[in-house]
């Protein structure tokens, strides 16, 4: 099963569609409108045409901006799944920090990241972007764009122009350079260190609260699909 379909099956098992011989429309159009869904007897399987009765899935992703496995999961699976599902199906929390370490020097927080200073910069840019945008639907496409490119630290302005032109790149840059950026990263460090059980690698995926065997299977599925299994 393709990675995106595997994640869809985990988060919205009712989305699976089976072929119906009486339907005259191709399968990829069954959920394009309610009329076609009814004609193909697929209405109950089209998540975009119905409202979930269960509470939304709470998914938290603990990751690093330059970790290959993290970038692959976010770009190829999580973002695609988020686009396919109704907005009320899933609440996503992004925590860019991962295996970084922090220490206080001269009253200010300093950070050391697994993939070097460039990753620390990428983590902080994304933390400041989330703080500035506030709305998940605004900043997630920008982060997707940043992680999709060759550099996750040098394409902020280009990604903002495409996905969130209303945001001010200067304000985000000021956050990164100032005390606010360090405070946001310290908060991410606290969130990561508070994981129970502690994270062993990234991407570390938590579904509906404490780490569970379900989220472990999801993580391993993601990892097996990447050349670099984990960071």
Helix-strand blueprint:
Blueprint: H1 3-11, H2 34-39, E1 57-63, H3 68-84, E2 90-96, E3 101-105, E4 108-112, H4 117-133, H5 136-148, H6 156-163, H7 169-177, H8 179-193, E5 204-207, H9 213-224
Parallel strand pairs: 1-2
Antiparallel strand pairs: 1-5, 3-4
Short description:
With 231 residues, this protein is α+β, with helices and mostly antiparallel strands. It has 9 helices and 5 strands; from the N terminus they run ααβαβββαααααβα. A 3-stranded mixed β-sheet has the order 2-1-5. The protein has a two-stranded antiparallel sheet with strand order 3-4.
Structural class of the secondary structure composition?
alpha+beta
> What can be said about the biggest beta sheet?
3 strands, mixed
Order of strands across the biggest sheet?
2-1-5
Strand content: 5-15%
Can you tell me the overall shape? elongated
Question: Keyphrases for this structure?
Answer:
3-stranded mixed sheet; 231 residues; two-stranded antiparallel ribbon; 9 helices
Describe the structure.
- With 231 residues, this protein is of the alpha+beta class.
- Helices cover 46% and strands 12% of the residues.
- The strands form two sheets. The chain has a three-stranded mixed sheet.
- Strand 1, helix 3 (68-84) and strand 2 (90-96) form a beta-alpha-beta unit.
- The protein is elongated, with a radius of gyration of 19 Å.
- The model is unreliable at 16-21 and 212-227 (pLDDT under 50).
